[in-house]
Amino acid sequence: MFYRPQDGHGLPHNPFNAVVTPRPIGWISTRGRDGVNNLAPYSFFNAVAYEPPQVMFASTSAKPDRIGTKDSVSLIRETGVFCVNIVETAAQDAMNATSAALPAGTDEFEVAGLQSAQCDSIDCARVASAPAALECKLTQIVPLPGAANFAVFGEVTGVHLRDDCIVDGIFDVTRYQPLARMGYRNYASVTEQFELTRPDD
User: Whole-model pTM above 0.90?
Assistant: First the structure.
């Protein structure tokens, strides 16, 4: 099968998200100037550089109570900071609860029953129980083709690692089992890993 996206795929559901999988989930926390916290998951998320460490996520739709985007991008524009919380499989229900399109000004930490903690290097909340959290300073917001598509880039200014996930000096993802986004409404849990040595090592 071959299709051109502009012509449609002819399938019951769009296969694009199922092709680009698994995708890590960036659970993005922000805080408005009014002090209200916000939390939302984004599966168009990844690390993009080592030195200095940088990450990105993309927001691809809009809410009627925000101008042309969603809460996360709007609040990052306002404050210039955000935190990426890593989602463990045990937090799948809480993560899903924060994906709801709630009115602007709603604290998703409260909605999902999550405890927040103050970030150290930025004025933002983070998920206290997350296995890892990346405090970020905005570097740029890039408009993408299409309505309400934005890529948000940030430099990591602080890193939180949960102590039980560090084993013999290694951050062991099998200790918390990252939740990954698949296609359609499907998710996957990382329960095992293996090592490959590069030819030039």
Answer: yes
